[in-house]
Amino acid sequence: MSRAAVGFLVIGIWPKEQSNVDEPRAEMNIKNILKAFIPPVGKGARNFYYALFGRLMMVAGYQMITGYQLYIIKYYTLSDSGLDANGLKLKAASIVATMSVITMVVSLLAAFTAGPISDRLGMRKIPVAGASVLFAIGAAMPWIFHNAIGMYLFAAIAGFGYGVYNAIDQVLNISVLPNPAEAGKDLGVLNMANTLSSVLGSALTSALVMITGNYALVFPACIIVVLIAAFLIMRIKGVK
């Protein structure tokens, strides 16, 4: 009940927006309904699709490791530990908990610093692409260091990179919308990348594990995916 009251306060009272009763409304018909599902085309759409597929690849790379984090720790990081099933479970849980704390700290640091710095510099594209590269560096750590330290470094470096990415990417997305009159629809298309990329990232990791029988190649594959994301973002024109 208290959550509902807070939600009503934040959404219904606090914004103090003007009523939209007199706003012109499009006629509700099949043509207009179908039009709402058409993605952007024409002038300005190229930047939009670079941002869309850049986001798709970045979040897919994120999902490739974080979605399978527990299994990676149990069957890759601790594969040579010699622990029994119960010991392996407890050690993996401890590493995951430590990684969660590290990720939370660096993500908060990124959230509080990346946005203001980006605003001061007037840059969107370069910080987002740089965050993708930083995530790739973090993803290399468990590949280089086959132990818990590698996973902690991943949590710190990739976590900070992903925090920077989340702090700035949505602003970049807004800046590449081709038609302000259809901003809501186009942002919805961009946000679909979150769902699709989760499926893509999970499918890529599953396929690699099925083919190779282990998680070792997940890290270089993730690096390639997020570097593709950085490349696509840098292809955007007209935005620093």
Write down how many β-strands occur, each being a DSSP E stretch of 2 or more residues: 0
Structural class: mainly alpha
Shape estimate = elongated
> Could you state the CATH homologous superfamily?
MFS general substrate transporter like domains
- Topology-level CATH name: Growth Hormone, Chain: A
Query: Uncertain segments of ≥5 residues (pLDDT<50)?
Result: none
Secondary-structure element order, N to C: HHHHHHHHH
Alpha carbon gyration radius? 21 Å
Structurally, the number of domains stands at 1
How large a portion of the residues is in β-strands, by DSSP E?
under 5%
Residue share in helix: over 70%
Write down the oligomeric state.
single chain
Mean pLDDT across all residues, rounded?
88
Main sheet makeup: none
Outline the structure in words.
The protein is an all-alpha fold. It has one domain: MFS general substrate transporter like domains (Growth Hormone, Chain: A), CATH 1.20.1250.20. 75% of the residues lie in helices and 0% in strands. It contains nine helices and no strands. It has helices spanning 2-13, 30-35, 45-66, 69-77, 85-121, 125-144, 148-175, 183-212, 218-234. It is elongated and about 70 Å long. The mean pLDDT is 88. Residues 47-240 form the Major facilitator superfamily (MFS) profile domain. It is a multi-pass membrane protein. The chain crosses the membrane at residues 48-72, 92-114, 126-145, 151-168, 189-211, 217-234. Pfam families: MFS_1 (PF07690). It is found in: Cell membrane.
